[in-house]
Every structure is written in structure tokens, then in C-alpha cells.
Specification:
heterodimer, A: mainly beta, seven-stranded mixed beta sheet, 55% strand, globular, B: mainly beta, six-stranded mixed beta sheet, four-stranded antiparallel beta sheet
Chain lengths: 114, 116
């Protein structure tokens, strides 16, 4: 158990819909990262938050957005869903915002868009 | 640009065999970290090791060992006396200091199957 929690574990929804994925980092970790894992793209970095502020953006679509709340939990919002958005979405956390710390991953949310 | 290549996509071995997973990286940064993660069939990503670019010492942890060679931009992972529980997808990843973020750039992963 990494200490990072993600809900829900599975999500099935239809095209055009909007969903919210939730992540709680390990106790004390200030950085939260979101990654997408799909068969064709592999593991791709989406976005990072540090202590409530956006720190870096990766290959995140404009239809996707995220935020980190004062209690440090984070949410990833996916809207206007397309079939190609079906993937495993991971949240990870690391301590302090210092570079080089290992990231601990949650169990992931498997999103299926039908 | 940063890039991680895991040329092997899939390996199948028999229990107790040794197996080496290759990882080659590209970076223009002189300061970076390399990582290995394991993804068992259950799906979670498990951290295995972190190595910074200034530390080329090899590391051994039980049946696992890592060989970091800057001259060849490689960070290979060896499992000695493999066991069925080692069956998983293994990912090598890179984090650059100059990227302005602690984001990880992953290789495509290598699926290891250890047969009894």
C-alpha cells in the first residue's frame, strides 16, 4: 500500500459525459501528479500540483483540468469524453516539491468510455 | 528532449533464471534521476529504485541489482534467480532537473513472465 488513495477504482461512462477522479496523497506529501496509461501512448504525464498551485503541464488535453485543494487532495476533471480517453489514470505523490524524490502511485482509476 | 527506451517489450523465462531488463535514456541535462517501477498484474505501480546522475555505483537489493552506466546512457535492471512473483511489467523512467518539474518520463515498459 503506497498510501495514495484514488476513487473511484472503475468508472464506465458514455461519450460526451464529464467525470471527476479523486486522489488523496500520502500524508505529508505536497506534490500531486496525474498520469494517463493507455495501450497506444503508454504512461504519460498530465499535470503536477504543488501545495495547491499548478507546477507543470504535460500532454493534457484542453478538455481535461485538475486542481489541488487546501487539504492537498486533488481532482482530475475530464469532460466531453471520447472513446480514446479510455485509460488507466494514476495519481502519484511525492514529498516537499524537491526534485528527485520518488513518486508513490495510487491504485489508479480505470475509465471506460462507451 | 528526454526519452527512455526499453527495447525489449516482452521476455519469458523459467523460474530461477537470471534476467536483465535494458533501459537506455536520452537527456541533454547533466543532472537527472533514473527510476525503475514495477506494475504487477493487479495494476498498481510500485517504486523499486531511484538513482541520480552523479552516482554511478551499482546497487544490489536482495535478488535485484541495477547497473548504471553514463557512458552508454543505460540503467539496466537484473533479477537474479527469478520467481513467479516477479512476473510484471517493468518501467524505467527519467526525471530531468531542467524540465522545471519533477515529472517522470517513462519507457514503454517490458513485460516479464516467469514460468514455474
Amino acid at each position: 500500500d503506497s498510501g495514495v488513495t484514488q476513487t473511484p477504482k472503475h468508472l464506465i461512462t458514455a461519450t460526451g459525459q464529464r467525470v471527476t477522479l479523486r486522489c488523496s496523497p500520502r500524508s505529508g506529501d505536497l506534490s500531486v501528479y496525474w498520469y494517463q496509461q493507455s495501450l497506444d501512448q503508454g504512461l504519460q504525464f498530465l499535470i503536477q500540483y504543488y501545495n495547491g498551485e499548478e507546477r507543470a503541464k504535460g500532454n493534457i488535453l484542453e478538455r481535461f483540468s485538475a486542481q489541488q485543494f487546501p487539504d492537498l487532495h486533488s481532482e482530475l476533471n475530464l469532460s466531453s469524453l471520447e472513446l480514446g480517453d479510455s485509460a488507466l489514470y494514476f495519481c502519484a505523490s511525492s514529498g516537499g516539491g524537491s526534485w528527485g524524490y520518488e513518486q508513490y502511485f495510487g491504485p489508479g482509476t480505470r475509465l471506460t468510455v462507451t | 528532449a528526454q526519452k527512455v527506451t526499453q527495447a525489449q517489450t516482452e521476455i519469458s523465462v523459467v523460474e530461477k533464471e537470471d534476467v536483465t531488463l535494458d533501459c537506455v535514456y536520452e537527456t541533454r541535462d547533466t543532472t537527472y534521476y533514473l527510476f525503475w517501477y514495477k506494475q504487477p498484474p493487479s495494476g498498481e505501480l510500485v517504486f523499486l529504485i531511484r538513482r541520480n546522475s552523479f552516482d554511478e555505483q551499482n546497487e544490489i537489493s536482495g535478488r535485484y541489482s541495477w547497473n548504471f552506466q553514463k557512458s552508454t546512457s543505460s540503467f539496466n535492471f537484473t533479477i537474479t534467480a527469478s520467481q513467479v512473483v516477479d512476473s510484471a511489467v517493468y518501467f524505467c523512467a527519467l526525471s530531468e532537473a531542467q524540465s522545471g518539474s519533477e515529472k517522470l518520463v517513462f519507457g514503454k515498459g517490458m513485460k516479464l513472465t516467469v514460468n514455474p
